[in-house]
Amino acid sequence: MENDYTLRQVAENASKACYICYRPSAHVLIDKSNTDFFYICKSHLTDKGFATRVDPPVDTAAIEAELKKKQLEAEKEKVKKEWEDAQKKKSDKNEEEKDKEDAEKVKEMILKDKKLPEPEPVPESRKYTLHPTIYTQRVRQKKELAAAKKRAEHIKTMQFPGVPKGLPGEKKEEQDEKKDDGGEGEGKEV
């Protein structure tokens, strides 16, 4: 188990009690190896005595390269449209083609005016490290839980001695003799 936790969000109907304040929470901190998780209120994550956010290193070169790529694509589209417009003006078209072209332009203008709803950005997972005392508490709880499970299994497999059959104070030999007689001590011939 490592002190490297990721914040995830679950559905509101799956919310459970917060680890700290026991209020319903839909936010879960889960460790890197998926062995430890607990529900937590988002407000507790800002407390430096509980957890610290660990931001991944920002790759500025990759961001700049992606931005340049988008700009080049936009310029490409712009030049392509200008060239198509110039070609359309040069060629002689009959009246029907012009009507179709006008209808297409109207459709394009309508689509441009009508903005399509952009999909909501998926919230990226946030990384946290727990405060050392909180982390050691989590580790201790996991160890105690594992030990309790082990004890419970051990108790299930334990065999206890049987209940004594004879009277208190009788010796085993006397008990064996009674068994051979069929339970009666008198009338036995030797």
From TrEMBL:
Coiled-coil annotated spans: none
GO cellular component: endosome
GO BP terms, alphabetized: vacuolar transport
Annotated InterPro entries: Vfa1
Disordered: annotated segments: 74-190
Comp. bias regions, Basic and acidic residues: 74-127, 168-190
Highest taxon of the lineage: Eukaryota
Pfam families referenced in this protein's UniProt entry, alphabetically: Vfa1 (PF08432)
The protein's name in its UniProt record: YALI0D19250p
Species name: Yarrowia lipolytica (strain CLIB 122 / E 150) (Yeast)
Lineage: Eukaryota, Fungi, Dikarya, Ascomycota, Saccharomycotina
